[in-house]
Amino acid sequence: VTAVWLRYAGAAAYGAPGERFEIAADHLLYLDCRGSGSPTLVLEAGMGSDSATWSPVHDELARITRTCAYDRTGRGRSDSGSAGDLAGMSNELAALLATAGEPAPYVVVGHSLGAVIGRVHATLHPDDVAGLVLVDGFDPDIFDERVVPLLGPIRDQYVDQTADIWRLIGSVEGIDVEASRAQLAAAETAGLPIEAIVAPRID
User: pTM of the full predicted structure?
Assistant: First the structure.
């Protein structure tokens, strides 16, 4: 998915200048950090994507402050397997940053599925996260709460569509959907600086 998107965007091939770090016995995750400054930007890719998806903007962001992209378990240059659920993804990210010696505070920049991973991470590791940037975020809980009640006769169609997306995420990322939905429902980011970026839609 990432390689196809990069070719379509005309971006140069990702050179993979990062390193793999052991976060548990015989389990390694890939991390690519560049630049200097604080807080550190942590780039969280969308469903099925990896650190290479950030290559068109990674160097530009690193001119501003320390910027880290990584591959989740099962993605890119990290080991295969599953983190289990959103909380597992968050805890693996925390272990990776600690092992690599990348100090907090972090601003998590999450694209699509990465947005909910970022929200759960900010909930589980509040002392480490200074803010969130949600890029075209997948936020089904907010949609269910604020939009679904307004849909009237097409409500069931959209509820089914959201369930289909969760099933796809579970299949692609290898995570427990019900546990992840419960963790997202419990996410609490009140008082945390959040910036939402949404691409314009062209019909």
Answer: 0.89
Q: Cis peptide before 153, with omega less than 30 degrees from 0?
A: no
- Residues 18 and 7: beta-carbon distance below 8 Å: no
Rounded to whole angstroms, the Cα distance separating 174 from 168 reads: 9
Nearest Cα to Cα of residue 84 among 183, 189, 203, 174? 174
By CB neighbour count within 10 A (0-12 exposed, 13-18 middle, 19+ buried), where does 147 fall?
A: exposed
Backbone angles phi, psi at 74, to 5 degrees: 85, 0
Judge contact between 165 and 47, C-beta under 8 A. no
Q: What is the pLDDT of residues 149-196, one digit of tens each?
A: 878 888 888 888 889 999 999 999 999 999 999 999 999 999 999 999
138 phi and psi angles, rounded to 5 deg: -90, 105
Q: Output the pLDDT for position 202.
A: 67
Of the candidates 62, 63, 66, the residue with the CA atom closest to the CA atom of residue 39: 66
